[in-house]
Amino acid sequence: MKPNHWSKLIIVLFLAIFPLIVPSDYYRHIFILALMWVVIGSSWNLLAGYTGQVSFGHAAFFGVGAYTAGLCVTKLHISAWWGMLLAGPVCMVVAFFIGCVCFRLRGPYFNLATLAIAEIFRLTAIVWRDLTEGMQGILIMRTFRNKTYYYYFALILAAACIYAIYRVIRSKWGYYFVAIREDQDAAESMGISSFRYKTFSLLISSFFTGLAGAFYMNYMGFIDPEVVFSLYFISIMAILVAIIGGAGTIWGPAVGAFIMVLLQETFRSSFFGLFPKWVSQAHVLVFGLLVIFVIRYMTNGIVGDWIKVQRLWSKNKEQPLASTGS
Amino acid sequence: MDVFIQTMVSGILIGGIYALVGLGMTLIMGVMRIINLAHGQLMMVAMYITFVLYEYFNIDPYFSLLVSMPALFLLGVLIQKYLLNPLLRIESIIPQNQILMTVGVAMVLTEVMRFIFQSDYKSVKTPYSSAVLYISSIAFNFPMLIAFGIAMLLTAGLFFFLLKTDTGKSVRATAQNKDAALLLGVNAEWITQLTYGLGAALAAAAGTLLLPIYYLYPDVGGPFTLKAFIITVLGGLGSTVGAIMGGLVLGVAESLGATYISMALKDAVGMVIFVLVLVFMPGGLKTLTKV
Amino acid sequence: MNFFETQHLTKAFGGLIAVNDVSFQVVKGEIHGLIGPNGSGKTTVFNLINGYYPITSGKILFEGHELNGLPTWKICKLGIGRTFQVVKPLRRMTVLENVMCSAFNLTTRRDVAKEKSLEVLEFCELSKKQDFQAKGLTIGDRKRLEIARALATGPRLLLLDETMAGLTPQEQAEGVKLIRKIRDAGITIIIVEHIMQVIMNICDRILCINYGQEIAGGTPAEVANNQAVIEAYLGKE
After folding, report:
1. What is the pLDDT of residues C50-94, one digit of tens each?
2. ipTM greater than cut 0.85
3. Is the pLDDT of residue A326 over 50?
4. How far apart, in Å, are the Cα atoms of B33 and each of A222, B100, C172?
5. Minimum Cα–Cα distance from C76: chain A residue
6. B window 60-89, beta carbon within 8 A of A
7. Which domain holds residue C12?
8. Which domains does chain A have, with CATH numbers?
9. CA–CA distance, A147 with A15 (Å, rounded to integer)
């Protein structure tokens, strides 16, 4: 076994027994959120990092997923866990229509269209009170008091998401996605229907983002439109998570998710109470500065540039897809 | 009928200010091919400058244009120089990193203002804030009229600059064909800085003009950023004449939406128009007029 | 039924007619040249065949199928491969991955696609560079990669757009050899080229267009001695 396989194994083992060795509910909570962001970041990455379609509106899928779970309780009077089954398919249907609209556009037009559609969802959720309860939000009873269950649920979700994306990337679809990212006209002339494969990418991406949303509803027990359809704290955060770890890499978004959630939590809690209280008020400011810093100095992310560093001293050619790097 | 005319009038008046916001965004779009998602936030900064000048130095909002516009011009130049231009030299997987950068700028501007002024609502209440002129039974809000007038003057000034001065012509040349402009000796680096500065200054003017009739809080920028890009797309990306029309159309559409549909859905009206235009008329209003 | 033909092919961009009433036939197994001065509409013809631009009027027929209105990727799947004058490598993929993207047209299995791609790379003499990132290739290799990628889609008709431009004389000679080899493998070729030496050398028949209109057609010798062609290139005496 190569050394980096050992380190991966250790990380997996650590994640598997984490709630058993760390009794603090607070740290479990942070890890649950981080795992949820692993799912969202990886999904965004499939569409943007691999397929080159930079979505500024993933909050639409997260929100629709969360509301699917919430509406199971308020409208259908069944458990919010049914939302975990329904959210994926519902999001895929929504995504299909969004794709029909947005994939006619390229570059900045596409970015704007996704952003605008997510905003339309947010405004609709605020205004359509009969369905969504508007700004009042949806409050449900949580099933478990013990966070360990939620932790393992999130862990399985994250693992499934990464594994699925890994398989997709290694398949014909993965090659097609990257081809479209690199040059859409060339891809078309090579027999690749860019519309069809962009849609496939979007469907998978929205499926998992929706699942993450439904999980959020179940775990937090409360949602409102400003939280789950938030431009900054969902759509932009998804982008950051992926970029900081490394867009266009399998593990990048996972690494990015843990970094982002831990950083955010550190500032939100004023360095776990070590610093004066005003530090916590600055956590959004820090978030913004981080955006600027990452884009200015780390555009390819930690994992993205890591492979480049590794290549320098070990001529390891067994990368799944040399689509990463500068 | 009166209600309808009244709605149209307020729509057109606010549309004049929207046009100013949209013009700045359009200039930036045209020259740099990026969407400036910090546009409304730049406007918000200008509003705070105006607010401080009025509150602590008793300077009339219309005079503070002379401060807010240069200040934002400078801020814009700095942002372009130190944050946006360096990105051109980096190859990244995500081609839209300049847009993301503007998002970061937007967040920082908002949060810095929140840090200084807290989240409270502020407003500038001048003696003429609620003055109204009546022409038959149609009310014209006095500050709105003045704002509309100044907006039109600034727009005319911008067109003079773009059409008649050498620097303005360089800006237009860069927007049309960057490589050719470079070959002809245009200093593209400086042109992009100038353009972003101008865009920011125009946004600043809109913010300052709005303040006597609007209220101010750190998050006020977000909705205006959205409006700015709706206008830009509506007008046809990069078209200045289109941006003015886009501003007026958005003003009227919002006004009609607020009167006849619901106040709460006012913002959604813009979004829906936006998506419809993107899908069915990707060239924007420009395609109708061929300007 | 002709293997490939265009009938009264016309393309107008607004008021400008870029291709005007061009009709020609291509016989299976030949190398058909398309020449003309700069801006005469050669690449536009390719973009019309390839479905990149919609046709204003006229018809394109390939093995009896009408291509009008089909999207680019479907035309590729029907068996028409093309290269671009301005090469379009998939920059951040390796040479092998570039070709594999094309090879997936014929299979969904990764190992099969890889095997097929290695064959094509061998054929195009690019095997040594299979693990290079496409963005790091020299211009000559990029042009080869364009050809390899088009070949891997399994075409019966190949459109080559100025594959020799910008190459050294030695690279050109290798290019000519490769094009002959492709023809010998049973693939029909339409080639746009500026370098007369090359085109006169390898083509079976040539069509010359100017201002979007056909001015001459026939064997290389016939075209080379045609008064209209000489005038188009050199101007009237």
Report:
1. 999 999 999 999 998 899 889 999 999 999 999 998 889 998 899
2. yes
3. no
4. 40, 13, 39
5. A191
6. 83, 86-87
7. 4-92+157-234
8. 19-313 (1.10.3470)
9. 14
